[in-house]
Amino acid sequence: MKPEKHLEVLPKSIWVFHCNSGSCNGCDIEIVATISPRYDIERFGMKLVGTPRHADALLVTGPVTKYMTDRLRRIYAQIPDPKVVIVVGNCGCSGDVFYKSYNLDGPVDNIIPVDVYVNGCPPRPEAIIEGVAKAVLKLEKIRETLTVPKETPVVSAEPEEEYIHDA
């Protein structure tokens, strides 16, 4: 699917917190490329933020090492609801060549729930942009389920009858 199709429906900006859970930095370099002037993902509303408390989405790269397992859970818990998790790269999606390593607890979906997978080693910036667009759509669906419709006040068409007291 073309990313333009997803990006037409972006209702608002998505703020993303990036977490490297043990990657080789190949995916991180591609994420930086998406915010560079060539791809300029900020024009679509995606912005990297410095704290998980300000984020709508968590972007995770790399397989989860034992050192990062508890930290990843704490970062996930700090992001306010509703939130989505995007995994970028084969290592985060499946463990890839590090799958049977003694020092891994990952892939990421073994630790926290994942909403969008972006495969590739490393994935191209276009794939990352498409993944973010899918995450925006998923986030909007979650927000729609959380909103409670307001009850409309009942207005009666007939005026209430007054009590007539016989004297």
Write the layout of secondary structure elements.
Layout lengths: L2 H5 L6 E7 L5 H9 L11 E3 L8 E5 L4 H13 L5 E5 L1 H5 L21 E3 L6 H22 L21
Parallel strand pairs: 1-2, 1-3, 3-4, 4-5
Describe the structure.
The protein contains five helices and five strands, in the order αβαββαβαβα. The protein starts with a helix and ends in a 21-residue tail after the last helix. The relative contact order is 0.19. It has a five-stranded parallel sheet, with helices on both faces. The chain has 167 residues and is α/β, with parallel strands linked by helices. The radius of gyration is 23 Å and the shape is elongated. Helix 2 crosses helix 5.
**Low-pLDDT residue intervals, each spanning 5 or more residues:** none
Biggest sheet layout: 5 strands, parallel
Order of helices and strands: HEHEEHEHEH
Strand content: 5-15%
N-to-C span: 81 Å
| Count of distinct strands | 5
Reading side by side through the largest sheet, how are the strands ordered? 2-1-3-4-5
Rg from alpha-carbon coordinates: 23 Å
Treating each run of at least 4 consecutive H or I residues as one helix, how many helices? 5
Helical percentage: 25-40%
* Secondary-structure-derived class: alpha/beta
Using the alpha-carbon principal axes, give the shape.
elongated
Rounded mean pLDDT is 83
